[in-house]
Structure to design on (575 residues):
């Protein structure tokens, strides 16, 4: 059993989830707070990875992040080098690939919060930021946890994007899903079985608490 | 002292709000009108929840002046706002709801939190989650929450509309006591005549989004009586001259006529009350051996028969105070009553709400 790939996969999922939450929460809040053409545009763009084959997304990222690509030239000129076939590149790809799974649940949680409860807070002199921290977040924790779990699980499960941008460098970009593919290609079914089973159980266990708590929490107002 | 000026317009779907009034700086100003007439929208404009066009100045402080591009955001307007459905924070206890208000509102409280808690009798509820409260309890907490800090105006949007009668009465009584203690304007939205009678010092009638006049309540009594009071009745505003603690009885003066009304009342204050037609009986001779305290010499102005009952319009002699009596056809014929006659009206009961 190769623990390098397991560790790398967990690290990728963790880093991606943290970045996803940092981007996703404010983005979801902005998307949930009204309607405008720009919001529609951004909302659609965020959802594109839902329908786009991961290999296409990976391909475009590879092209743009490569040393000749638009992003690649920018990162190179900043002294960061090209992100293609690096862990950083994987993170960027994962974040883009999983963003709809994070923004979606948070956005619908935010949308389900009655405007009036926010207005009530404002009439008590609370600023929008204080209101967000003290009223919105406690009402949205289930949506936030759901997003975190989905973002994490989805990153662990990705294959196409990772293979395209990251390639298959052990310890650097070779995550579990890619390793399983390798084993299958080499007809090492026993190793493939073991790792697949671990991922299967892991996926089930990580989703279970989400569904257990789902029925109990509904956003309530009094 | 600077008054509270409201001169603004707001376009809503299918309704244009047009407000042009000055509201007195003390007492309760009721916005009265049918549902959909735009009452709540006016409160939302004052609160800055809606962005309207024009001037909103509260006790001389400009919250909004479109011409000078002044627009304070809701959280910068010192106010209390009581919503119809209390809008307490469900994730917090009662105490946390109140502390949240104390922490965010600026200035020392006009009335201390513990005094309000005592007055509203909710000290037992402090540690309960607000979701576990009854409707009446929730609304009490919501009212306290709104009154904390130093609000310059208190906005109340049909705060009693969804409550049972007992809670309604209890909260009305507390609000009545508080309106003289807290010297800020209360703007109270309702379509209940009873609430108007109990609380109002001034009233603005709303129709199709237009509010053009706020008048003292005594000038609106006739118009109010044309609304449904449950039974024909007259409404009167009087001044509490004195209060007899031994007999639990207040003397309330209206146009030089004294009414004796049971109940605790603050002297030197104004109250509104109503007299139902079925609480008035008529006699030709003044009965001095009666348990009835309020007996007035009246003149018969008119009568009409509705559903086999006779309603008689009366006026207390040498005043402008009108009364309505409801008697049976038999009594009407036995007493041989006619227009212009002077008789005695015995008032059996006077209702504060």
């Amino acid at each position: 059993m190769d623990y390098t790939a397991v560790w790398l996969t967990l690290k990728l999922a963790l880093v991606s989830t943290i970045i996803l939450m940092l981007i996703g929460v404010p983005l979801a809040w902005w998307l949930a707070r009204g309607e405008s053409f720009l919001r529609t545009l951004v909302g659609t763009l965020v959802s594109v990875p839902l329908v786009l084959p991961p290999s296409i997304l990976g391909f475009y990222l590879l092209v743009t992040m490569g040393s000749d690509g638009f992003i690649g030239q920018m990162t190179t000129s900043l002294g960061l080098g090209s992100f293609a076939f690096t862990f950083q590149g994987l993170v960027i790809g994962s974040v883009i690939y999983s963003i709809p799974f994070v923004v979606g649940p948070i956005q619908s949680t935010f949308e389900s919060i009655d405007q009036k409860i926010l207005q009530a807070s404002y009439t008590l002199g609370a600023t929008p930021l204080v209101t967000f921290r003290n009223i919105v977040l406690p009402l949205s924790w289930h949506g936030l946890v759901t997003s975190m779990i989905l973002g994490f699980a989805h990153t662990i499960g990705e294959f196409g994007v990772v293979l395209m941008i990251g390639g298959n460098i052990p310890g650097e970009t070779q995550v579990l899903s890619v390793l399983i593919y390798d084993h299958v290609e080499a007809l090492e079914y026993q190793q493939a079985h073991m790792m697949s089973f671990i991922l299967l159980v892991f996926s089930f266990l990580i989703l279970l608490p989400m569904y257990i708590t789902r029925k109990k929490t509904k956003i309530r107002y009094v | 002292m600077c008054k509270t000026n409201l001169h603004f317009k707001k376009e809503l779907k299918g309704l244009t709000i047009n407000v042009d009034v000055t509201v007195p700086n003390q007492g309760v100003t009721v916005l009265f009108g049918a549902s959909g007439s735009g009452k709540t929208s006016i409160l939302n404009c004052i609160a800055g929840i809606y962005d309207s066009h024009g001037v909103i100045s509260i006790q001389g402080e400009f919250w909004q002046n479109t011409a000078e591009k002044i627009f304070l955001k809701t959280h910068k307007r010192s106010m209390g706002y009581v919503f119809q459905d209390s809008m307490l924070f469900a994730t917090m206890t009662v105490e946390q709801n109140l502390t949240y208000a104390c922490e965010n509102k600026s200035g020392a409280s006009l009335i201390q939190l513990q005094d309000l808690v005592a007055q509203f009798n909710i000290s037992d509820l402090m540690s309960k989650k607000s979701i576990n409260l009854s409707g009446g309890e929730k609304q009490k907490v919501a009212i306290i929450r709104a009154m904390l800090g130093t609000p310059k105006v208190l906005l109340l949007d049909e705060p009693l509309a969804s409550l049972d009668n007992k809670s309604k009465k209890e909260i009305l009584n507390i609000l009545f006591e508080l309106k003289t203690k807290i010297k800020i304007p209360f703007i109270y939205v309702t379509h209940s005549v009873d609430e108007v009678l109990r609380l109002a010092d001034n009233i603005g009638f709303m129709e199709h989004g237009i509010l053009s006049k706020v008048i003292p309540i005594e000038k609106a009594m006739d118009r109010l009586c044309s609304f449904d009071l449950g039974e024909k009745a007259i409404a009167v505003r009087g001044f509490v001259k004195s209060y007899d603690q031994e007999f639990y009885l207040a003397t309330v003066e209206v146009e030089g006529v004294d009414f004796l009304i049971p109940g605790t009342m603050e002297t030197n204050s104004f109250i509104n009350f109503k007299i139902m037609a079925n609480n008035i009986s008529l006699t030709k001779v003044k009965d001095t051996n009666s348990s009835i305290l309020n007996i007035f010499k009246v003149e018969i102005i008119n009568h009409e028969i509705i559903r086999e009952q006779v309603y008689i319009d009366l006026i207390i002699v040498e005043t402008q105070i009108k009364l309505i009596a409801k008697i049976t056809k038999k009594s009407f014929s036995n007493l041989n009553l006619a227009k212009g006659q002077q008789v005695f009206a015995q008032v059996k009961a006077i209702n504060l709400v």
Summary: The longest strand of chain B covers residues 294-306.
